[in-house]
Amino acid sequence: MSTAMIVLIVIVAVVVVGAAVSLVLGGLGWYGRPGLKRRFGPEYERTVVRHGGDTMAARRELAARVRRHGDLRERPLDPAGREHYEARWTAVQEHFVDSPRQAVAEADGLLAELAAARGYPDGGHYEEQVAALSVHHADHVDGYRQVHRVARAGAGDAMTGTGSGTEQMRTALLGARPLFDDLTHPTGGSSAGAHRRRGEHHVGQDKWLRRHAPHRPHPPAAG
Q: Where are the beta strands (DSSP E) in the chain?
């Protein structure tokens, strides 16, 4: 074999190895553990648990979500649209006092509608909508899952005559609020302003909880 041929083979081998290394290192940015864990945060851990601890299966699922929905660009809400949704959420909270089950169902539907208005898949495709939301709102998407589960359980309870606990429904409703805040108040400004707005919303939420919590009768004193 001539010297020129040997040199050519060495060059080709170096190029191939370099390309493979680049792919591996680049993959770690989004599709390997470090990038996915940074992007999805608690959603990464939930996905691993759902796959029975199989981290590779969880990474494949999360990477597939990024490929499908990573390029999604949220449609903005105009001020009138934002006020419209905020008024409806306030109504949901007020309905909770007299009809917790109905309020949770309304919150579930409102989040589905709001997400669709922001450019996510239609609420009729719940699993795909949640997958897309998880890519862009990983910290709060599980609140939507919880309120959806409780709303569906409530529909079954109505038919069987059983009922989810009021505290469970309240927890689900409050857990869904951060995603609602994310979708109605995009954090496009300064991070300090975004945190301040979110803090104000949570303070208002706590005040609502204290003001409208149903009063529970005290247990009778021991005779």
A: none
* Mean pLDDT, the chain, integer: 79
CA gap 179, 43 in Å, rounded: 14
Contact of 140 with 178, CB cutoff 8 Å: yes
Is 223 contained in some domain?
no
Kindly state whether residues 104 and 198 are assigned to the same domain. Answer: yes
Number of domains in the chain: 2
Half-sphere exposure of 194 (CA within 13 A, CB side): 12
Considering the entire predicted model, what is its pTM?
Answer: 0.71
Query: How many other β-carbons are positioned within 10 Å of the β-carbon of residue 133?
Result: 27
CA 9 to chain centre: 50
**Closest to 138 (Cα-Cα) out of 53, 46, 40:** 40
